[in-house]
């Protein structure tokens, strides 16, 4: 099909320590004879200084050398994926109509990487993701910090007071026992070099990174945060919270709340000034967006001073995956079709977690039944002479389920972050907030129209603003002012993945404008008039060209009261297995249609 075609492609390499960009251009020709190989001829090599040369030693690479075997296999298949993406882009077209070739290649490469990494263990993938550490811009000042463990204890005590005994049992482990033994929370401040503003008057973004609650670090988000600082002149505070499955819910929330307490009530005698909550905006992407919402609920329910606002980007707020877009946008998003799964490993042995004394006997009985189950999908941890729990069961979320009993009425666990019994806890899935997300500060929610979590952002918005009130609506408190931005043709976390596009530039500028208005910082002077609407609910749609229009009327026509009731029915379903079976069936249906 490609015989006789010619074209030009380019490869880009980045020296992350010296910050030189090398661009190699090739002429590509497909011969008319299928027996001949395509010919590549290098026609241009360009070296460009893309930022000031670093004074840091240059013997470090973006990826840790000790993981070269893991990277070798993944990168080999990613190169094949890139060429397949080029072919598909010009022959069948991209998954979303407006995507450029570069966006299409990026999308397919990320999608392939996620799928290929499922053959690795959680520990391997965590190590690889933690190796992504982008350098700090020379125009920014970095200040590292550590949150003392006393703040984690204070945060944990507050959270404990918010959980009922029944909710504690559903959480499934004694998370309080790890407060003192786990390492302290680490993070960094980023701000402009030579910023003359009074830190007490600057707006502060507390950023919580994404990664499905089990991957990534704040260093990966430096390029994005650099853009946000450029447009807003804010300071950013980002942390590495504890990751699942080794530290499931509520460990990440405990760390996020501890950091908020650290900002607003710093330790005495260290020369730190408290940050006014009215100058703080909490933000995060994907799981970090869900954690942002969970943190707001915790702050509200604990009676702490609320921040000025929050900016969840493509937030993951329904860990039960109940809403339609999880199915309908399967082909235009890089998230794995049936969720994240990995090879068996000690990280997936949840029995190693500290257990509540009253749960120990129950867990032993459940473990015994699981070992006796003759299910064909049974998995065990590889033998380790030093591991006393080497024969306990291991499972992978959304992957191969291990049932409680032989009848397999439901799945054992589908998420790394929390057991099935806890997935509807409001601080795990904020979409199930008992107060319907009322009484929160102003929110700017951004989502991609083509992403699988799109409907979660829409539901979050309509619920918080009280667009479809129920009979108990007056009990929930004051409605939350929310601006929802829907970006046409954009996948999950496009703000981070497609940073060169017009929609992303518009997204970051809007984040900066929202930040300016809710904090009232003198550093944030917006040109072009007021950004926030006076209306309780504001909906905007952004085109692939970055053009923004009002879309409230259209959204309410598409998501009317009948649709709203259907969504609530889907959310109320008790069975997790029913949801996962639905996702699997829909995925296989799509595959059959393609073939």
From TrEMBL:
Residues 367-381 have a biased composition (Basic and acidic residues). This is Alpha/beta-hydrolase. The keyword Cell membrane does not apply. It holds the Pfam family Abhydrolase_3. Residues 205-326 form the Alpha/beta hydrolase fold-3 domain. Keywords: Hydrolase. SUPFAM superfamilies: alpha/beta-Hydrolases. Residues 367-402 are annotated as: Disordered. It comes from Rhizopus microsporus ATCC 52813. It comes from the Eukaryota.
């Amino acid at each position: 099909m490609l015989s006789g075609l010619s074209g030009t492609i380019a490869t880009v390499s980045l020296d992350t320590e010296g910050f030189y960009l090398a661009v190699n251009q090739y002429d590509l020709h497909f011969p008319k004879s299928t027996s001949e190989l395509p010919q590549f001829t290098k026609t241009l090599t360009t070296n460009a200084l893309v930022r000031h040369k670093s004074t840091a030693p240059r013997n470090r690479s973006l990826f840790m050398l000790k993981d070269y075997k893991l990277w070798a296999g993944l990168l080999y298949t990613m190169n094949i994926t890139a060429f397949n993406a080029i072919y598909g882009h010009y022959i069948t077209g991209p998954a979303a109509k407006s995507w450029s070739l570069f966006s299409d290649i990026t999308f397919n490469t990320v999608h392939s990487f996620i799928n290929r990494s499922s053959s690795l263990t959680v520990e391997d993938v965590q190590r690889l993701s933690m190796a992504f550490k982008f350098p700090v811009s020379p125009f920014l000042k970095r200040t590292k910090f550590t949150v003392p463990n006393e703040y984690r204890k204070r945060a944990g005590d507050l959270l404990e007071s918010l959980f009922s005994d029944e909710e504690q049992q559903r959480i499934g482990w004694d998370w309080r026992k790890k407060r003192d033994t786990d390492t302290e929370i680490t993070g960094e401040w980023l701000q402009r070099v030579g910023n003359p503003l009074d830190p007490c008057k600057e707006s502060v973004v507390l950023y919580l990174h994404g990664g499905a609650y089990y991957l990534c670090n704040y260093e990966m988000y430096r390029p994005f945060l650099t853009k946000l600082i450029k447009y807003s002149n804010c300071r950013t505070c980002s942390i590495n919270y504890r990751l699942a499955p080794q530290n499931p819910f509520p460990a990440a929330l405990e760390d996020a709340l501890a950091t908020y307490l650290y900002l607003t009530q710093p330790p005495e005698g260290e020369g730190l000034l408290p940050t006014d909550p009215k100058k703080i905006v909490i933000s995060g992407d994907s799981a970090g967006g869900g954690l942002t919402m969970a943190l707001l609920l915790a702050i509200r329910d604990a009676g702490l001073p609320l921040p000025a606002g929050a900016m969840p980007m493509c937030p993951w707020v329904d860990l039960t995956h109940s809403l339609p877009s999880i199915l309908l946008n399967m082909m235009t998003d890089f998230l794995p079709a049936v969720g994240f799964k990995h090879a068996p490993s000690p990280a997936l042995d949840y029995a190693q977690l500290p257990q509540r004394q009253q749960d120990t006997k129950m867990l032993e009985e459940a473990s015994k039944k699981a070992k006796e189950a003759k299910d064909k999908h049974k998995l065990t941890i590889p033998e380790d002479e030093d591991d006393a729990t080497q024969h306990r069961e291991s499972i992978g979320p959304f992957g191969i389920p291990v049932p409680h009993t032989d009848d397999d009425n439901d799945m054992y666990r589908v998420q790394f972050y929390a057991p099935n019994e806890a997935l509807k806890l409001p601080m795990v899935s904020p979409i199930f907030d008992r107060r319907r997300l009322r009484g929160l500060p102003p929110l700017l929610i951004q989502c991609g129209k083509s992403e699988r979590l799109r409907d979660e952002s829409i539901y979050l918005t309509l619920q918080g603003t009280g667009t479809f009130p129920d009979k108990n609506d007056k009990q929930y408190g004051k409605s939350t002012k929310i601006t929802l931005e829907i970006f046409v043709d954009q996948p999950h976390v496009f703000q981070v993945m497609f940073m060169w596009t017009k929609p992303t530039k518009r997204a970051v500028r809007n984040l900066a404008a929202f930040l300016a208005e809710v904090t009232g910082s003198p550093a944030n002077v917006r040109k072009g008039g007021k950004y926030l609407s006076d209306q309780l609910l504001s909906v905007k749609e952004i085109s692939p060209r970055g053009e923004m229009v009002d879309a409230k009327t259209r959204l309410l026509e598409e998501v009317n009261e009948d649709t709203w009731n259907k969504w609530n029915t889907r959310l109320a379903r008790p069975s997790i297995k029913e949801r996962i079976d639905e996702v699997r069936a829909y995925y296989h249906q799509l595959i059959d249609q393609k073939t």
